[in-house]
Amino acid sequence: MSGTKVYAFASGANGKAKGILMGQFGSEMLLDKILHQEPIEAGNLVYSEGLERNLPRGLIMGKVTAVLENKTQVFKQAKVLPEFNIGDLDLVFVVQN
Asked: What does residue 22 show for φ and ψ, rounded to 5 degrees?
């Protein structure tokens, strides 16, 4: 997923945080452009926002492992690990409307 960017949100018991999910080298991803007032914590699931043409809303993209917050920066970030290894998939079903 390196170089790929998708609109995403993290959801947990305290609410929802929106941002842009970006691929990093290796298997880690980064949820960027999160407003400081939006609640996010390790363990939150990250979902696709559905604003892209070919990506529906609500697909689980991964789980937050750490929140990177610096009050001198405009936004905070979160490290995200995928919930599965795409290389382990043997069979994929495509569900359409």
From this structure: -120, 140
